[in-house]
């Protein structure tokens, strides 16, 4: 089952089940007072959502609703260097930090960092930002785990871990600035509940960047290439750490454009993950006030 947050032109909003190209709103007094994350907190989110789905006659064509980011009050974290391609890209990016990236790929403890709070997240069609003080930026297409407050994996969504590679490469201590800023994280278009997701060996991840109506970069990987399991990443994230409203965890990128590629304002980034769907966002330029002039 796929669950989405949506709003309608009349200003109403809610949670609905996505069936192919239609959305069926969850109905009734209970459903309208429940947030998506409250449904995900249920012992059996699928059974709860199923019991609240309205009649088929209430279905709305998906292209007539606005999909909102599938997050309410959760924190968003991310794992890094979980694919060989990410390890080699970081080692190229910074000679000074190369050994850190090399070691973290095979160390028992993964790289985990706080990526975003809900107000920094963009949903389907909403803009993602290039920092004004950065000259080298890429999207990172990442399978994203949706984890409840009980630290149980309840679903999956598509994530875009936007990254400023020049800031990250200059000094590893700048990582939070390379990763965390307004509109730094794409999530959506909805959540596929855990039971409906294919096994990792069957999950392909594809990235396409379009510029002026043409494809400027395409790349793909498979979750089978990820060096760590979902359980390993959740286990480390949850050590000595509580998430009262749940947490979303991006699992790292296996697709990095070549080093001479950087995003530009006006680009459109689409990430497709098997079992979920496609998240598309336009890219916008950050503030000129901070632009690097040299
Ligand atoms: O420390 C670098 C960030 C790595 C990352 O975000 C990734 O591998 O996806
Ligand atoms: Mg990443």
Give a nutshell description of this structure.
The chain is α+β, with helices and mostly antiparallel strands. The chain has helices at about 30-35, 35-40, 45-50, 85-95, 100-105, 165-170, 175-180, 230-235; strands spanning about 1-5, 15-20, 20-25, 60, 65-70, 75-80, 110-115, 120, 130, 135-140, 140-145, 155-160, 165, 185-195, 205-210, 215-220, 245-250, 270-275, 275-285.
The average pLDDT is: 95
The outline comes out as: globular
Helical content band: 10-25%
Which spans of ≥5 residues are poorly predicted at pLDDT below 50?
none
Q: Work out the strand percent.
A: 35-45%
Bound ligands, each once = 2,5-dioxopentanoic acid, magnesium ion
Listing every helix as H and every strand as E from the N terminus to the C terminus, the arrangement reads EEEHHHEEEHHEEEEEEEHHEEEHEEE
Radius of gyration: 19 Å
**How far is the first residue's CA from the last residue's CA?**
51 Å
Summing up helix and strand content along with how strands pair, one would put the structural category as alpha+beta
Strands, total number? 19
């Amino acid at each position: 089952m796929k669950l989405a947050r949506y709003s309608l032109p009349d200003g109403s909003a809610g949670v609905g089940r996505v069936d192919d190209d239609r959305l069926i709103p969850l109905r009734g007094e209970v459903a309208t007072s429940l947030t998506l994350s409250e449904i995900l907190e249920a012992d059996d989110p699928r059974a709860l959502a199923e019991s609240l789905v309205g009649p088929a006659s209430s279905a709305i064509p998906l292209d007539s609703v606005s999909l909102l980011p599938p997050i309410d009050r959760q924190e968003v974290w991310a794992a890094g260097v979980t694919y060989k391609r990410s390890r080699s890209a970081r080692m190229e990016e910074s000679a000074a930090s190369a050994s850190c990236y090399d070691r973290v790929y095979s160390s028992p403890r993964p790289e985990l960092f706080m990526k975003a709070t809900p107000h920094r997240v963009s949903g389907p069609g909403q803009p993602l930002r290039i920092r004004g003080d950065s000259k080298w930026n890429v999207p990172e297409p990442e399978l994203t785990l949706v984890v409840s407050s009980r630290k149980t994996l309840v679903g999956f969504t598509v994530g875009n871990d936007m990254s400023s590679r020049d800031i990250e490469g200059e000094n590893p201590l700048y990582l939070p600035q390379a990763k965390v800023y307004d509109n730094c994280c794409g999530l959506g278009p909805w959540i596929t509940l855990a039971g409906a997701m294919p096994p990792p060996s069957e999950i392909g991840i594809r990235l396409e960047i379009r510029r002026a109506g043409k494809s400027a970069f395409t790349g793909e990987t498979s979750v089978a290439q990820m060096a760590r399991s979902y359980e390993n990443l959740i286990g480390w994230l949850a050590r000595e750490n509580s998430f009262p409203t749940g947490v979303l965890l991006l699992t790292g990128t296996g697709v990095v454009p070549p080093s001479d590629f950087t995003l530009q304002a006006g680009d459109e980034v689409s990430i497709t993950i098997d079992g979920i769907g496609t998240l598309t966002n336009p890219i916008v330029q950050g503030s000129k006030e901070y632009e690097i002039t040299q």
